Amino acid sequence: MIVFEPMKIERIELHRVQLPLVRPFRTSSAYRTHIEHILVRLMDADGAEGWGEIATAVDPFYNSETTETAWHMAHDFLGPMVVGQVWETIGEFRNLYGRVKGNRFAKSGMEMAAWDFIGRKRGQSLSKMLGGTRTELEVGVSLGIEADLGALLFEVEKYVAEGYRRVKLKIAPGWDLVPVTAVRSKFPDLPLQVDANSAYSLADVDHLQRLDEFQLLLIEQPLADDDIVDHAWLQQRLRTPICLDESLHHVGDVRKALEMQSCRVVNIKVSRVGGILESKAVHDYCLGRQIPVWCGGMHEFGLGRAANLAIASLEGFVLPGDTSGSDKYWKQDLIDPPVRVSHGLAQVPVGPGLGVNLRMDRIEAGRRGFAVIDGRQK
Ligand code: OSB
Ligand code: MG
User: Would you list the DSSP string of 153-172?
Assistant: First the structure.
């Protein structure tokens, strides 16, 4: 039996850390050479701690939050609302800042730290706490828009050779049929999917229908983030399943999208839906309706990457996720050992909490900002 003991966070540290990507990443909406995320460290009076990652981009081109807005939220609202309060469950922890609207990436990093905190206290892994059913996961890779076809084919070849189980290509008007045709002809049996990051409109329906001949697993977020109505219209005209990413902020959005048949597959991103608890709710909702889900990513450092692997160990995650190994992104991850993918498989962390070993020296080396919230500000 698990005995719930009251918990109280007395001090929060925010570490804003920047790392260069091993390869710049271009999508229809953004170009990135570096990633800058905020690590949240929750601490109680007895020295217990938990770590989480706020996986915002530095720009507002994927969604409206940025690393700077998340810093403001965590530092001026979420942190002060958590410090000194008593809570026993993640649901109660989340309620502490329940009055804050939106800002789900910032909330997600706070909540992740609370899961890590509880897991370490109980000696249980996040996967175990969530009821994960798998210890090893099939992994995919998300490849950005490249300067030319040669460069793209080189990247696909490399990850296929490493054993990755599926490839996702970023597409945009002017970079869609040509790269998909090239990759499909070279890899006829490769599980392949595309992600448009909202680059198309309904006027493109004829063009998008031409993607139907490539046996794609899915097409991710073709239309605007705030439009599940037009996605339903489009899905009726496409054989390829639509998968929504940007449009789904919580389980309520998922219910509406599925009722409207706006998509047939759901991308679950822990940060986009505001945390692990909401991710589990989306997973459970989809599982009950036999809707396949998979775990998306936001170029997380090893900490957030471990959370992704834990949620993806739940039984409804039947498609490979963007849960690639650390070396896809970083020369040196913040965790040691890094996340390794071998033969296209990643191990779900088994240690307490997120189950990773953070390297403070590497955090400090990449640090661009640091703050403490300890209640004295109030
Ligand atoms: O749309 O899924 C996306 C990365 C940053 C922002 C949005 C997206 C992505 C990816 C890469 O596709 C996911 C990853 O490898 O972490
Ligand atoms: Mg996406």
Answer: HHHHHHHHHHT-SEEEEE-B
Q: How many CB atoms lie within 10 A of CB 187?
A: 15
State which of 34, 141, 195 you would mutate to test the pocket of ligand 1, scoring each by most atoms of that ligand within 8 A of its C-beta.
Answer: 195
User: Of 170, 172, 235, 181, which is closest to residue 205 (Cα–Cα)?
Assistant: 235
Nearest to 47 by CA among 129, 121, 126, 122: 121
Nearest CA to ligand 1 atom 4: 298
The residues annotated as belonging to the active site are 170, 269
- Supply 183's token pair: 């990759």
Q: Which atom of ligand 1 is nearest to the CA of 300?
A: 16
Q: DSSP assignment, residue 117? A: H
Rounded CA-CA distance 324/164 in Å is 8
The full set of domains in the chain, from first to last, is 7-123+359-377 (3.30.390.10), 128-347 (3.20.20.120)
In 3-state terms, what secondary structure has residue 86? strand
Ligand lying closest to the C-alpha of residue 142: 1
Q: Count the Cβ atoms, other than its own, within 10 Å of residue 237.
A: 12
| Cα–Cα distance, 195 to 191 (Å, whole number) | 14
Tell me the torsion sign for CA atoms 53, 55, 59, 64: negative
**Among protein residues, the one whose CA lies closest to atom 6 of ligand 1:** 298
Q: Which residues line ligand 1 (CB under 6 A)?
A: 62, 142, 195, 197, 245, 296-299, 322, 324
Tens place of pLDDT for every residue, the chain, 378 residues?
Answer: 555 679 999 999 999 999 999 999 999 999 999 999 999 999 999 999 999 999 999 999 999 999 999 999 999 999 999 999 999 999 999 999 999 999 999 999 999 999 999 999 999 999 999 999 999 999 999 999 999 999 999 999 999 999 999 999 999 999 999 999 999 999 999 999 999 999 999 999 999 999 999 999 999 999 999 999 999 999 999 999 999 999 999 999 999 999 999 999 999 999 999 999 999 999 999 999 999 999 999 999 999 999 999 999 999 999 999 999 999 999 999 999 999 999 999 999 999 999 999 999 999 999 999 999 997 765
Atom of ligand 1 at shortest distance to CA of 269? 2
Return the amino acid letter for 332: Q
